[in-house]
Amino acid sequence: MARKSAKGASRAATDGRTKPGCAGCPALCCHDLVMPIPKPKDRADVEELKWDLQYDTVRVFITSHRWHRLIEGRCIYLTRRNLCRIYKDRPQRCRRHNPPDCEHYGEYWDVMLNTPEELEAYLDKEKRRRLARRRKR
Fold first, then answer.
1. Number of separate domains in the chain
2. What domain range is 49 assigned to?
């Protein structure tokens, strides 16, 4: 799972194998696979996410109302010192990664869901919140 870290971490210059702003970071972005997913619309979608969350390497997070699946892992191109072996030829997705919008600078999610039970509790809470808003109108 992505780790929380202190905000305001070092933003030192690049060493030629990392992006500016990445110096001192243990390549956190290269340890987790994050994929955008649609917000669950029906019970089948919820059950599918609950299935995913049964695995200890899978999390779901929400940021700015957008849902994502996070799978723990480690890029095969990282060296033991957490430097990218293919930095000059890295994929476009890696090139687009934009510090400080990452876990190196603090929480990057609004909600992190780790278990099927947390997903159900979150959805129940959101449902109650929506009902309360409707009643106020």
1. 1
2. 28-128
Question: Hey, what amino acid is at 105?
Answer: Y
Q: In this structure, is residue 75 part of a structural domain? A: yes
Q: What pLDDT score was predicted for residue 19? A: 62
At 127, list the tokens: 């449902």
Q: Identify the CA nearest to 108 among candidates 56, 43, 62, 42.
A: 62
- Helix %, strand %, coil % of the chain (to 5): 35, 20, 50
d(CA 90, CA 94): 6
* SS3 (DSSP) at 71: strand
CA distance 95 to 117: 36
Tell me the average confidence (pLDDT) per consecutive run of 10 residues in the chain, 137 residues long.
35 47 81 92 97 97 95 94 92 81 77 98 96 89
- Name beta bridge partners: 36: 68
